[in-house]
Amino acid sequence: MSGPAEEPRAAPRCPFCGSREGEVISLFGTQAITLQYRCHGCGSYYEALKYAAGEAASSDAPPPRSGA
Ligand SMILES: [Zn+2]
Q1: How close is the Cα of 65 to the center of ligand 1, in Å?
Q2: Where do the domains of the chain lie?
Q3: Tens of pLDDT along 1-12?
Q4: Is there a contact between 49 and 56 (Cβ–Cβ < 8 Å)?
């Protein structure tokens, strides 16, 4: 299955309680490559990378373009 490119594959686990019931509250966290989530389990806010760490870490390749 392939969803929209702007959406993360799945909600990451909450680092506080481990719940996956997270809701995206902002498309940009403290960094452009992070999303802000709010956990439905414990109500904590946390950030997670939009893409897999391996993809985001490869500085040799240009960043993926969205829209085009
Ligand atoms: Zn939580």
Answers
A1: 31
A2: 22-51
A3: 555 555 545 678
A4: yes
Which residues contact residue 27 at a Cβ distance below 8 angstroms, ignoring those fewer than 6 apart? 6, 35
Ligand 1 mean position, distance from CA 64 (Å): 30
Can you read off the two tokens belonging to residue 58?
A: 């490869």
pTM (2 d.p.): 0.58
By the 8 A CB rule, do 48 and 8 touch? yes
Q: Give me the residues near ligand 1 (ion), CB cutoff below 5 Å.
A: 14, 16-17, 19, 39, 41-42, 44
- Give the tens place of pLDDT for each residue, 29-66: 788 888 999 999 999 999 988 876 555 444 555 666 77
Instruction: Report the separation in Å between the CA atom of 36 and the middle of ligand 1, taken as the mean of its atom positions.
Output: 13
